[in-house]
Amino acid sequence: MIVSDVPSLVTWWFVFLLIGILFLPLTTLIFSHFIDRGYIFSKVLGMLLVSYTIFSLGTLQVLPFTHATIIFLLFAFAFVSIFLLVKVQPSSKSNIFKSSWKLFMFEELLFFVALAFWAYIRAHEPSIHGLEKFMDFGLVNSALRGEFFPAKDMWLTPFSINYYYFGHLTTAVLTKISFLSSAITFNLMLATISAISFASAFSIA
User: Fold this and answer.
1) Rounded CA gap, 65 and 59, in Å?
2) Under a CB-based contact definition with an 8 Å cutoff, are residues 142 and 151 in contact?
3) Helix (H, G, I), strand (E, B) or coil at 40
4) Whether the Cβ atoms of residue 178 and residue 171 lie closer than 8 Å to each other
5) 160 has which bridge partners?
6) How many degrees, rounded to 5, is the angle at CA 58 between CA 197 and CA 38?
7) Chain centroid to CA 175: how far?
8) Is pLDDT above 70 for 12?
9) E strands in 114-160
10) Distance CA 140, CA 133 (A)
């Protein structure tokens, strides 16, 4: 990894940090029996809910897949999180954050180190070719170009994609949130899958 890659890595990590904080109140309810209250899963839950909401609204043609829509949804989820934080057992949640903040920081550091390590590995071979990488990259860009879903087939436009592509859509959503190039986020997403798996395994164990 060269110095010019570091800002992209930090920007990408910061997006996940914000998503994790945003969905932490909901995560603590779902993973209430975990010692860490499922802190690392707030990132996964956030990605899932934001992406699926955008996919549903785009499929129904209620809202287009734009930066404005993503920002609107993030504010909507922030409102829900604040409601959960204030209205649902606020005293117990305060105690959870006070007692677990060191564990939260450790897991965040674990996630960042794993992300940086795998990004470093990908930086030595960032080209997008071989296996299904070319098609995966095409599906990500097809999602980015479209306003509604299903996205247009990159090989058979104006027909729609006849293939499962929710993971590619999730990458496209994170690409728009981070304002990075898809050529960069494609490799960062591969590193993220490894980092999330590593940190989640720690949380479960």
Assistant:
1) 10
2) yes
3) coil
4) no
5) 152
6) 25
7) 9
8) yes
9) none
10) 11
Collapsing DSSP to helix, strand or coil, 2 comes out as coil
Owner of token pair 């914000």: 18
Show the tokens assigned to 199: 């940190």
List, for residues 81-110, the tens digit of each pLDDT value. 888 877 765 655 556 666 677 888 999 999
103-133 pLDDT, tens digit each: 889 999 999 999 999 999 988 888 888 788 8
H-run or E-run covering 19: helix 6-30
What does the pLDDT read at residue 107?
93
Q: For the beta carbon of residue 54, count every other beta carbon within 10 angstroms.
A: 24
- Per-residue pLDDT, 28: 85
For residue 97, what pLDDT is reported? 65
User: Which residue in this structure is represented by tokens 């798996």?
Assistant: 197
Question: Rounded to two decimals, what is the model's pTM?
Answer: 0.89
Cis peptide before 158 (omega within 30 of 0): yes
Angstrom CA distances, 11 to 86, 145, 179, stand at 29, 22, 9
Name the burial class of residue 91, with classes exposed (0-12), middle (13-18) and buried (19+) by CB atoms within 10 angstroms of its CB: exposed
Q: Which amino acid is at 173?
A: V
Structure confidence by residue, pLDDT tens digits, 139-186? 999 999 989 999 998 888 888 988 889 999 999 999 999 999 999 999
**CA–CA gap between residue 43 and residue 48 (Å, rounded):** 9
d(CA 121, CA 124): 6
